Amino acid sequence: MLASHGRRTLSAHRGVLGRLPLTRSFWNVSLPVLGGPGGAHITKYHIVRPGKDGVTYDDFLLALPERDHLASFTKEVPLFIRYLKVVTDQESRPEAFTAFLERAKSGLVVESDVFISTEELLALMWKNGYSEQERNAVQFTVPADYKFHYPELSVMFDITEEDTYKFCMRTRMEKSHIGELDWAKVKPQGMLRNHWLIFGTGLFIFKSFPFFNYYFGVKVFGTSMWCWTMWSLMNRMIAKVCRRNEYMAAQKTAQDVMDGEDAIVESMRRFANDAKCVDYLKTFREDSESKIGQYRKALVMKMKDDLSERATKQLQSIVSFEASMGSAMQELVVREAASSFREKFPGNKAMQEKAFTAAVAALAGAPVAAGSDPVSAHFTEAFQSLQGVDLTAAKGNATGTLAERVAFAQQAKEAEFRQTFMVTPAEAEEVRNLASKAKSGQDYDFSKLPAEAMQRLEALYTSINSKVGYSLPESLGTKPISATSDDTANSYIEKVNAQLESARQHLRDARLKTFVQAF
Fold first, then answer.
1. What is the 3-state secondary structure (H, E, C) of 140-159?
2. What stretches pass through the bilayer (predicted)?
3. pLDDT per position as a tens digit, 55-108
4. What gap in Å lies between CA 218 and CA 330, rounded to an integer?
5. How large is the average pLDDT for residues 425-439?
6. What is the DSSP code string of 6-52?
7. Which of 136, 293, 470, 477 has the most CB atoms less than 10 A away?
């Protein structure tokens, strides 16, 4: 009774499984999820696995595949490499880490189903007496669904790869693992041979049967066998091409959908703050007035700082110039006194005799009086000649007396000082001439000036203000707004740019008007 009930249950399950989409349908719309790369692959054991191109599935315990029959893939192992670095450093095996790193640098090529899981590895470590700390290091480093393939186990526990491969395969066989096999290595061979062996055997058997004549054997049976052979060949190629095209189309559609979603999100981000516009407009007037007031205050403070900085630098330059002029004057007095002595000594017999007498007395060890030394007497006399002399009123002469030479040098320095730090009469006269050309009634219209005259006036403005240490902003610091693709916006931008240009010209006219009125 139980046996009959079991048979009925098994037959019912077979009936359900027999209706699963085990074969490709050519007469309706097929979805990529039904089969092929990216879809589902139903094994001969009615177990669903991911569909992959060139890969089939079988039970390792029943198939007993060879090593070259297994499907391989490239595995990225950055997490395992970091863990392996710690293990090899503690065990003093740096050469093992270096060799594995070189092997896995471009990806570790392994057989996809020759592995043990994290739970299986932790159980094995517990059985083999590893400490809790070592097991925790594995458990807390790698995720629970991580797969340790045999090259990783080999370098991790310092065991040969052949032994780890055999152990992983035995573990998978004990679990009746449905693994990936390379279809090119395990697919049945000799299809054409088998077909024509069937044809030859059938023809040999049926040739002696009644009504199985030449027409049936060659025309009917032979043509049927040929059609069967061609269908088998073309079915593989067409099915592979169709699955590939379906998968690529599905991937392209998914990518297009994702790109569209990204574009929608990006567009929504551009308008994310549009709802806040009304709130911003409610306080726009108050915010603008407060910011304009702050801007004006900051602008005035910056102008004040610039003016103070420019004046301070100019005063420092004047002090430096006066200090250098004083030191140069002292050096000039000594140099000119020495120069006058060199010019006077060759033609003065009295000075030559005094010098000879002083030299002889010095050689004899006798003291030399101050008046007997012509050099000291000449320098004393020269320095005394400067006392009570007004160098500013004295007539300068480059080849005259010491006082005249010093007066000449001082007057040259004063002229340089006036040229550097003071407005010269020529510059003032040139400014007045340019201002007269721009005179328009009681006001000035600088737009009447030619381009060359305007450039010269701007140059005079810059140089004179630099001399006196004065600073004013020459522009608003703004730039024209670039045009857009919107005509309505462009008209508004043109108005704003025109107002900016008008403000710039107004500031320039006010600045130049104040400048020329000073002369």
1. CCCCCCCEEEHHHHHHHHCC
2. 196-215
3. 888 888 888 888 888 989 899 999 999 999 999 999 999 999 999 999 998 889
4. 133
5. 76
6. HHHHHHHHHHHHHTS--S--SSSPPPGGGSSTTSEEE-TTS-EEE--
7. 470
